[in-house]
Specification:
The protein is an alpha/beta fold and 459 residues long. The protein is built from 13 helices and 18 strands. It folds into two domains: 171 residues, Aspartate Aminotransferase, domain 1, CATH 3.90.1150; 273 residues, Aspartate Aminotransferase, domain 2, CATH 3.40.640. It is 33% helix and 17% strand.
């Protein structure tokens, strides 16, 4: 096979031989990248692109992070491969590390179970819940929630488009409105609503005729509620401060488990190991993936309370993947946990997040099309609207995304690209997830680049 090949030839091969189903052709002119460093991607022509989404928050600690990469490479030289039915030191130490850190935060003993991707961790959690709940298969989940694209995970992901061509695999979740205060489902105002959305959820348990509960003995048909503390693909939506605490009280009252999906928000994206820590809520299960290895090797997992996952109730073979707990991923995961412990991630992320949020709010004052700016830590949303400040502006959002990928923004005589991610209910929200290692100079550069794109696209 010839490897000295032009960009044109590569794109011709891609269009002929690559499935479009396993990737996303959002860019009108696909970019081929050849290297990365820190907060930067470089295309085949060596043009720099400032990455403000970091592989959907899979690379929280920067591309080519030296400490994490070195640990991964040391493992490559000793035990890079071993079947997941066997033990190795790295798996045991990583599971213990995550379990102990989680116990510190929630005051609950638990165990860690590994797999290879976020959706697979969700699938494992569904098995865990159904097993513990004697086969109950109905779940609550949120409108706007995203938990993966495997057949089981799509049943608790609210978007019908992920299911429409495949039919139903199990049981579609009952989808509850997320507390998206900027666009409240109930048309209420945040300052005066007194958590109306929680009260509406609680009403489901008032009568058997609402299809949830048998009032004779208060037996509920639903096994668990799947949440994202900060709704990710839905647009990095931050809920009001007491929401999850109030929700958790209702769930406990009726014996419904709380499953916390931290796949995008875990590992200090919000300034905490788990984003749910911000909301004084203790889940029964936590799923995680992405930045566990800083994107170096696929590894995901879940933590669950001892009662749900001890060997008597969840014995060997309950679920399995050939590459789960693989040594390279486990070594990278340990290096991530070490990196976190050596650096004040909580303080750094809080400070950087506050700075970037303030710069964006200043930019919002200059552009009426920036309807909403909000965030927690370095999970930040910028929602674009018409000049009325509320009507979604998907056209402008897509135009800015496409222009950023051209790599031709000129600042101080240099050309740059800008990598952004688009999310939200109306695909009009930029979900910013920069490297937690991003410098203040790079954040300032982002504001300049984003400002240039707003002007270029007629904002």
């Amino acid at each position: 096979m010839q490897y000295n090949i032009t960009k044109k030839e590569l794109l011709e091969l891609e269009s002929r031989y690559c499935s479009y189903g396993d990737t996303v052709h959002y860019s009108k002119e696909p970019i081929i990248f050849k290297r990365c460093e820190g907060s930067w991607l470089f295309d085949i022509e060596d043009r720099p692109y400032l990455d403000m989404q970091m592989w959907y928050s899979a690379v929280n600690f920067g591309y080519r992070n030296k400490e994490i990469e070195e640990a991964h490479n040391r493992q490559m030289a000793t035990l890079p491969q071993v079947a997941s039915q066997y033990l190795h030191k790295e798996k045991i130490m990583l599971a213990a590390r995550i379990a102990m850190e989680t116990e510190k935060r929630f005051g609950k003993k638990g165990r860690v179970h590994f797999n290879v991707g976020g959706a697979q961790a969700i699938e494992d959690s569904l098995k865990l819940i159904r097993n513990f709940k004697d086969g109950k298969s109905l779940m609550f989940a949120f409108m706007g929630g995203y938990h993966g694209r495997t057949l089981g995970a799509t049943e608790i992901t609210s978007s019908f488009r992920y299911r429409r061509r495949y039919g139903h695999f199990a049981n579609r979740a009952a989808f509850i409105p997320f507390p998206y205060c900027y666009r409240c489902f109930y048309k209420m105002e945040r300052g005066t609503c007194d958590y109306y959305c929680i009260k509406e959820f609680e009403r489901l348990f008032e009568s058997e005729y609402y299809g949830v509960i048998d009032k004779k003995d208060n037996e509920v048909e639903y096994a668990a509620f799947y949440i994202e503390p900060i709704q990710a693909t839905g647009g990095y939506i931050v809920p009001p401060p007491e929401y999850f605490q109030r929700l958790s009280e209702i769930l406990k009252r009726y014996g419904i488990l709380l499953v916390d999906d931290e796949i995008q928000m875990g590992f200090y994206r919000t300034g905490k190991l788990w984003a749910i820590e911000h909301f004084n809520t203790r889940p029964d299960v936590v799923t995680f993936a992405k930045s566990l290895t800083n994107g170096l090797n696929p590894l995901s997992g879940l933590w669950a309370r001892e009662e749900l996952i001890n060997p008597e109730i969840f014995p060997p073979g309950s679920t399995h993947s050939t590459f789960s707990s693989n040594p390279l991923g486990a070594a990278a995961g340990l290096a991530v946990m070490d990196y976190i412990s050596r650096n004040n991630m909580e303080g750094l992320v809080a400070e950087k997040g506050a700075y970037l949020l303030s710069r964006l709010k200043d930019l919002q004052k200059k552009h009426a099309v920036i309807g909403d700016v909000d965030g927690l830590g370095l999970a930040i949303r910028v929602e674009l609207t018409e000049t009325d400040g509320i009507t979604p502006n998907r056209v402008l959002t897509d135009a800015i995304f496409q222009e950023g990928m051209k790599g031709d923004i000129v600042l101080n005589g240099k050309r740059y690209g800008l990598v952004l991610d688009v999310g939200g209910y109306y695909k009009n929200t930029f979900t910013l997830a920069p490297a937690l290692t991003i410098s203040y100079e790079e954040m300032d550069l982002f504001i300049e680049l984003f400002g240039c794109l707003l002007k270029r696209c007629g904002a």
